[in-house]
Amino acid sequence: MSTENLDARIAELGQAARAAGRVIAASSAAARNQVMRTTANLIRERVDTIVEANSEDVEAVKEHRNDAFIDRLALDESRLEALAVELEHIAELPDLLGRTSDMRDQPNGLKIGRMRVPIGVIGMIYEARPGVTAEAGGLCVKSGNAVILRGGSESYRSNQALAECLQEGLRRASLPSEGVQLLPTTDRAAIDALLKMDEWVDLIIPRGGTELIKRVHDQTHIPILKHLHGVCHVYIDDAADRDQAIRIAVNAKTQRYGVCNAMETLLVAESRAEELLPVLGDAYVEHGVEIRGCPRTCKLLEKAVPAAEDDWSEEYLSPILSVRVVAGLDDAMDHIAKYGSHHTDAIVTTDEERAKRFMREVDSSSVMVNASTRFADGFEYGLGAEIGISTDKLHARGPVGLEGLTSQKFVVYGDGQIRV
Amino acid sequence: MSTENLDARIAELGQAARAAGRVIAASSAAARNQVMRTTANLIRERVDTIVEANSEDVEAVKEHRNDAFIDRLALDESRLEALAVELEHIAELPDLLGRTSDMRDQPNGLKIGRMRVPIGVIGMIYEARPGVTAEAGGLCVKSGNAVILRGGSESYRSNQALAECLQEGLRRASLPSEGVQLLPTTDRAAIDALLKMDEWVDLIIPRGGTELIKRVHDQTHIPILKHLHGVCHVYIDDAADRDQAIRIAVNAKTQRYGVCNAMETLLVAESRAEELLPVLGDAYVEHGVEIRGCPRTCKLLEKAVPAAEDDWSEEYLSPILSVRVVAGLDDAMDHIAKYGSHHTDAIVTTDEERAKRFMREVDSSSVMVNASTRFADGFEYGLGAEIGISTDKLHARGPVGLEGLTSQKFVVYGDGQIRV
Fold this sequence. Notes:
420 residues, homodimer, 4-stranded parallel β-sheet
């Protein structure tokens, strides 16, 4: 397709999404929940077709992709069943649309408050895992939005098979199937066209590696909700409980490595370094974690190698940990402000005043006291679902669930008031 | 200054703002309120200096600017006193920082909730009226942010004199004066440099004409909170109370013309057109309002001229009104969806079901039933202050007060929980 034709085609998609979004926004919770349940059943009914489409996707790339990639791409009956259950779970979540809050009576008799409403049309750009098609599509529709999906080109057939289930789910609930649309080509130019559609798209959610996120950020003037990266810290304070400190510092690093909420840098108050670092060092070595330390850490831990300046801002996503001995709370917070990524940071302390300062002053989407950074997650937070984690500072910070897919408008109820 | 030198200079400003923002974010409400009160007193003490700086600004442009422009630019003792009072008023507003909400206990013993925090560094770009320097600067500091201000080049000396009061106010409260900075040159390239500072600026708020807003939008990848334009509607429903309909339709148009929340298009249900349009037409003619109508309106109103297609999306900001007869509620909502600007729209009706549909389905930052659109305003809404009105759909919609200058992060309180 020529760029011009492509732009026109994507604009048609956007316009159709806008129109569908209006209908979905006005629809009842019952209708939207019916979409979730019908789609779940369609995924079950069509399991063979979806697995077949997925096999073609896998077949096409298996020569030049590694096992981890193929594993993320592959769908089988049990993964599809899990997706169906997830959609049924989304149906059970409370509906937020139309809820009013902050209602107050003004002296002139006006009642003024806020009402929760959908955002409108959401553009979702994601990589490999095709399950996102059903999850993100479901969350967008449940929250009253229309969505335009652009999954990884390697999973195009799988995404299409799953999107068709959602589209049929919409139709059977008498809602417009254009509420969920896939970009019609895996051509990268289609993403460029989507990112230019200020008029039809209200929010772009990119989900994937740092390179994808940066590319989207640099190419669009549409608001985006992005998760850049997670350089998470645990700070062991002078007043830390010894057992909690060890438990949390080990768990935050070793429970899983390739996740954004894993600790990448451990900060230890100098008054506790001699006592705690050797114990922690042994635990990390046992887990096969490489330690890159500041000079004082290296003095205390034979196995540590010296950290380079770049280490402090590195998201390892692997069994590597940078460790720094700091003077105390202020030093730790300065370090986090300088090198952190505003994702998730934790303090271990029994001192209430210092905990309070850390919670208030550390500018991250999640701040924790005496808990593992690994808890930064929509399900752990009780949001019921998660479309992503935002490291941005506006609209929604941290794990984003249904609420983050909505906004609030002002509502004013009068009986003929005019301004004088 | 060369572009390179300018970029480096603006980056220095940004870095200083970031550092100052951290200190202000952590400061007590008492300290931030002290800044407001001290600044108010400094404005009073320095009234002669400020008026003198302002006279130079006025002198420099009075040859080639009209009276309305000069009036917006000019400062005198009474306008400065009003600014001082406004800052004292901001000091009285409740502090939002550190407030937690939605706290809940998870089964694993974690307490999880949200805490209200500043956004960080705000870039404010505005035109003519120099009072904005003190108002916006005050609101940003009160809400814990640092701000970089770029006012109209015609008011540079006035802005500088007012910013110096805020900076001295910060110093006297032992807070860094870099919390409020002005771009150091009126060179447009300085705006370009500011708009590129993703690393140091978290939010851009442009305030001014459509051209300025569009330019900012097209040039930056930093999130922006913008007020584009207000094409506001009043829809008189079949079930409208006659007196309310007339009162509101006249007030929304004629109470003030050059404001964004004035009605620009009146929609009338066909069942009421014959009864109401002649009365309304007389009232508008009496106020000197020109009517541009649909064919049916023109049939009912001799004085109406035919509206062109462009009229329906025009923000007149003057005594011109477009009028359309519609079939009913759905037709009215379709018109608003097609031509409106998501600012403020009102329905006049006594029918609860139709009111409910209008409130829910019309996708504007403010929706009203039986009230004049002119009420869409931070002060009328009881926000206590207003830094602008947002026609965007994320973060904050409608009038933006202190809350819109803050965000929420997740806070997690544990006693040693780890993820298993």
